[in-house]
Amino acid sequence: xxxxxxxxxxxxxxxxxxxxxxxxxxxxxxxxxxxxxxxxxxxxxxxxxxxxxxxxxxxxxxxxxxxxxxxxxxxxxxxxxxxxxxxxxxxxxxxxxxxxxxxxxxxxxxxxxxxxxxxxxxxxxxxxxxxxxxxxxxxxxxxxxxxxxxxxxxxxxxxxxxxxxxxxxxxxxxxxxxxxxxxxxxxxxxxxxxxxxxxxxxxxxxxxxxxxxxxxxxxxxxxxxxxxxxxxxxxxxxxxxxxxxxxxxxxxxxxxxxxxxxxxxxxxxxxxxxxxxxxxxxxxxxxxxxxxxxxxxxxxxxxxxxxxxxxxxxxxxxxxxxxxxxxxxxxxxxxxxxxxxxxxxxxxxxxxxxxxxxxxxxxxxxxxxxxxxxxxxxxxxxxxxxxxxxxxxx
Length: 394
Description:
It is built from 14 helices and two strands; from the N terminus they run ααααααββαααααααα. It has a two-stranded antiparallel ribbon with strand order 1-2. The chain is extended and about 90 Å long. By secondary structure, the chain is an all-alpha fold. The protein is 63% helix and 2% strand. The chain has helices spanning 20-47, 51-57, 67-82, 86-93, 104-117, 121-141, 191-195, 217-226, 235-251, 255-267, 270-288, 298-329, 334-357, 361-393, and strands at residues 170-173, 177-180.
């Protein structure tokens, strides 16, 4: 071997057995080397929108951190912070779906909001009595998430106001707590009466689906075979039924556990969903800038978007930091800072387009708006696909 490096592979000529100090020095050397390129790349990205992808296209890449490595690093840091947010933890881990964080303070707020909408004294009495029952439940059980689901109880119902023609009211708390004055009997019920099942006369928590007429897959298949072929369910309907049986068996009828698992799995698919969206957006850019196809290849559009995604991850990290300070310190004036910061993010993205593609302000603005509209519809489609995938994996 001639010199300090191998002529074939470029490896440094070092001793095979390293000392502890040598390992520590190499470790910090690698870290500072990465940090140096990272911060220089970050500084250039912030100060010169759209400059780095043009440098990459021109082949001037050694000075900056490779965009793929920076994408992996920035996305890792962002989702590490995102999944450790208190609000996300509550969303994933809490089994209080529909009654999440139900306490006397929230009940008081719900009561005030409901009383504000009533039009006569009887409905006002109904709301007051209903909220009082909620308070007793919270007092008796402490944590409403520990109540066996589906939780049911009866509430007194005021009679219709025949003089004013006022119709019974329907109140809704969240997505799964339903309270209707038209669905609850006003007269007190005996034990015999309350033992009767009447789905219209109860308040339910976390009731996602109606009871199935079949208890299991075998019973359903047997009933299907007994029907004429033209009367049987379609393939899609059968798969939905099978999935429903599988979910019931896996979660033992606990709707809250199913929803928590669904949210958890779906949120952890967001990184994959963003990665899938990247070539789709690159295709949209390729279509919009086809007249410049000799100057920009498909991969160039993709590289431009990678840098834009990197900036988005870092932008959102700062936004989450501002939001955290606002919530912890109760500084409402930070809402204005967040609003201005978001506007700056939009302007930065527009500048990236203009500097990278080099078109006029009007053309850049029109294409920027078109791409954002396409991005919204694409995200809706991807959300639907990935959510369906999540349901069938639950």
